[in-house]
Amino acid sequence: MSEEVSKTADLKNKESNKNAWLKYTDEQLKEVAELSEGYKKFISECKTERECTHEVIRQAKAQGYVDLMEQTSIKPGDKVYYNNMDKSVALFLIGEQPLEKGMKLLGAHIDSPRIDLKQVPLYEDTEMALFDTHYYGGIKKYQWVTLPLAIHGVVVKKDGTKVNVVVGEDDNDPVVGISDLLVHLAADQMGKKASTVIEGEDLNVLIGSQPLKGEEKEAVKANILKILKEKYDFEEADFISAEFEVVPAGKARDFGLDRSMVVGYGQDDRVCSYTSMRALFELDKVDRTAVCLLVDKEEVGSIGATGMHSRFFENVVAELMDRMGDYSEIKVRRALANSHMLSSDVSAAFDPNYPAVMEKKNSAYFGRGIVFNKYTGARGKSGCNDANPEFIAQLRKIMEDNNVNYQTSELGKVDQGGGGTIAYIMAQYAMQVIDSGVAVLNMHSPWEITSKADIYEATQGYLAFLKEI
Ligand code: MN
Ligand code: MN
After folding, report:
1. Nearest ligand to the C-alpha of residue 138?
2. Ligand nearest to the CA of 373
3. Ligand nearest, relative to CA of residue 109
4. 426 CA distance to ligand 1 centroid (A)?
5. What is the pLDDT of residues 38-94, one digit of tens each?
6. How far does the centroid of ligand 1 lie from the alpha carbon of residue 9, in Å?
7. For the CA atoms of 385, 108, 448, 374, what is the dihedral angle to 10 degrees?
8. Roughly what angle, to the nearest 10 degrees, separates helices 452-468 and 267-281?
């Protein structure tokens, strides 16, 4: 047996690494399907951090969660949420024990790679109207051309009124998109490196071509402005205080002839966000406070007031203690330090088309369940969290006691590249944190793919964690 074959055999012998599909009863297969239907709806309707925040809060309210900042007192068993600027959200199920004993945190991010409009985006060129853009997060720019794209966003006018805009999702909506050069004239382009074949400054979104009658200068742009005014009641200057995100148009769908997978936009990291939320909703009572924390800006370094580097979460813990009549600075610090966290983000799924970048026994595979990454990072683990084995041992026991399929992985071969998550940021409070999550194919592409079994196992894993850690 070659070394490679023997390693594969080892994997199959490990109980935890078995393919989850094989263990499901008919009843469980129905649960897998039910969960994936809810998930597909969520990612089809929530393509921006704002849309995610609003939908998570809508669903939380239906589960009995109330706005923390509207409460004067809080007691064990209460369910509260905190909305951070409509772009990140924390849900708390208050535990029987004092907060200083620590919390059980499920963290994930609700921003995804996309193409943002610039502050002054609109222009006309050769009787075509276009939006100038700046992409957000790490993308292979060549993947985003010649696709039907939608525009999601918000305009805030000088008087403070907000206009929400979604164009391109309804079957009757138009879509927009970015053109690419015809192959017939692409001799120079085809010789370029993939990183420059489509340049960032050339990601211009085509939005119109019909001139406004009677308009002498830039009549196509004038026509677009007329439509924006009539339909959404905003003007060109209002783009300055707007946030528009250009994303793939269309719904998430079943993928594969066996319907075992989901294809959809923004699964990094809404797959971990949705499953974390669903797991928390399963519970009405906990010993230590359970938290689902969904943040913005992970794809650009977790900075800003709505990213994980913001102190908003620490502030909310202080607010919680205040409402429980139990606030002190030292107790806030203890609450954070005594916490345990699954910092969930997507893992690179092993891709049989590209085995060269993966090391087989330390890769994540479709169908083998929730993924735990002791470390992420790049070039000698740089920037990683590197979870403690004491914590990982607890998680192994919890997953196995609850019959949850789990696997371990690192982000590709050593020195192939790398990446980071929010894990190291929360670890700064000296809490136990590990990277976990769901394996994804086509990560950061317009259409990412996940396994329905992994979505189910992640939810079960999160639930087991909240019950037992
Ligand atoms: Mn990402
Ligand atoms: Mn991510």
Report:
1. 1
2. 2
3. 2
4. 18
5. 999 999 999 999 999 999 999 999 999 999 999 999 999 999 999 999 999 999 999
6. 31
7. 20
8. 50
